[in-house]
């Protein structure tokens, strides 16, 4: 495909594809968030609430106890808003910065075609810059979404919290800075989309280059070779690169969720000073000051396994979502190009 979209067009199609993919897998996102905040200390504080034993157990119990819409789709609107904004900003910054970088390479390596493709490290750096900028803007929406998705972990209430009530509560208790809880962890997690998109673009470039080489060998016009991956190839490459990125960065994914989550207070009162002291210690164990504090406390109480609690749910959600996104983005791009003709 010789004609290309502008950075704004790339950002728009990326946002549409991201919203579409996240909408399809949203219940898995809720399940992953619920599993990520589970710990021995939380189970002790909330004796009335039985921990989820698996993804399936979480899906069944959330649906049965809270309902389909209020449970598995809690926080859907702010989540999709964050997805659209994050994807738009990410694709915009990534497309713009990558375009500038490619123009720079062409000027420097005009007579060396092999050098016109960004290296893997360059792709990762470009992705990290784009990710950091988009997360800085959308972090408040992430905080609200996390609290909506994990709202059942607070003592039982007569109704579910709303985005407005959560924002008011955060402003009253933590001030404006509370809307950026978990942001340092989010900066670390820019490695995740950087790895995913960087590796994807690199593999895609290699596949397209190989197609062109084969076309030249067969005497076929290079211009007729598609610059897009097939649906199957896009899904597979997207899923594999996302899985790798998720495993590498998962401890900080878990830490970010726990930083943005609102830990509950024990609802049981005791007149025994010793028992009351134990409860206070358990409550302190699930209240965190930073991402490193999360990792430290989890390591002390649950070891390495605690860093990867909920990994299966996160992997399933991330792999499916990313695979669908990469599989559909080129189609949305093609549609946009047809509409612009």
Fold and architecture overview:
The protein has 341 residues and is mainly α. It has helices spanning 7-36, 40-45, 55-66, 68-72, 76-108, 120-149, 163-173, 183-188, 191-217, 231-260, 273-285, 291-307, 311-340. α1 (7-36) packs antiparallel against α13 (311-340), α5 (76-108) packs antiparallel against α6 (120-149) and α10 (231-260) packs across α12. It is elongated. 39% of the residues are buried. Residues 269-277 have low confidence and may be disordered.
Fold blueprint:
Elements: H1 7-36, H2 40-45, H3 55-66, H4 68-72, H5 76-108, H6 120-149, H7 163-173, H8 183-188, H9 191-217, H10 231-260, H11 273-285, H12 291-307, H13 311-340
Helix pairs in contact: 1-3, 1-5, 1-13, 5-6, 6-9, 9-10, 10-12, 10-13
Largest sheet properties: none
Report the C-alpha radius of gyration, rounded.
23 Å
| Unreliable runs | 269-277
Q: What general outline do the C-alpha atoms trace?
A: elongated
Oligomer: single chain
Q: Helix/strand-derived class?
A: mainly alpha
Average pLDDT score: 81
What share of the residues lie within helices? over 70%
What is the count of DSSP helices, taking H or I runs of 4+ residues?
Answer: 13
Give the beta-strand count. Answer: 0
Strand percentage: under 5%
Question: Order of helices and strands, N to C?
Answer: HHHHHHHHHHHHH
* Terminal Cα span: 13 Å
């Amino acid at each position: 495909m010789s004609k290309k979209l502008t950075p704004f067009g790339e950002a728009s199609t990326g946002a549409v594809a991201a919203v579409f993919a996240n909408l399809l897998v949203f219940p898995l996102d809720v399940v992953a968030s619920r599993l990520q905040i589970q710990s021995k200390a939380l189970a002790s504080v909330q004796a009335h609430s039985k921990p989820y034993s698996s993804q399936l157990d979480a899906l069944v119990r959330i649906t049965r106890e809270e309902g389909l819409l209020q449970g598995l789709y809690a926080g859907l609107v702010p989540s999709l808003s964050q997805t659209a904004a994050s994807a738009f900003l990410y694709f915009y910054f990534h497309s713009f910065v990558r375009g500038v970088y490619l123009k720079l390479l062409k000027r420097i390596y005009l007579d060396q075609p092999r050098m016109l493709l960004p290296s893997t490290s360059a792709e990762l750096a470009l992705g990290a810059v784009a990710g950091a900028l988009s997360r800085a803007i959308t972090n408040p929406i992430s905080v609200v979404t996390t609290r909506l998705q994990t709202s059942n972990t607070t003592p039982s209430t007569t109704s579910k919290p709303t985005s407005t009530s959560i924002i008011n509560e955060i402003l009253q208790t933590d001030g404006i800075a509370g809307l950026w809880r978990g942001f340092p962890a989010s900066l670390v997690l820019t490695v995740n989309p950087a790895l995913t998109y960087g590796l994807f673009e690199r593999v895609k470039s290699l596949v397209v280059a190989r197609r062109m080489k084969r076309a030249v060998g067969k005497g076929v016009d290079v211009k007729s070779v598609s610059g897009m991956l097939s649906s199957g190839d896009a899904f597979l490459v997207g899923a594999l690169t996302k899985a790798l990125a998720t495993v590498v960065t998962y401890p900080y994914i878990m830490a970010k969720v726990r930083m943005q989550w609102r830990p509950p207070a024990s609802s049981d009162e005791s007149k025994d000073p010793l028992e009351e002291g134990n409860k206070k210690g358990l409550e302190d164990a699930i209240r965190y000051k930073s991402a490193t504090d999360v990792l430290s406390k989890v390591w002390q109480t649950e070891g390495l396994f605690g860093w990867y609690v909920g990994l299966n749910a996160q992997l399933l959600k991330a792999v499916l979502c990313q695979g669908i996104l990469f599989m559909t983005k080129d189609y949305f791009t093609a549609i946009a190009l047809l509409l612009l003709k």
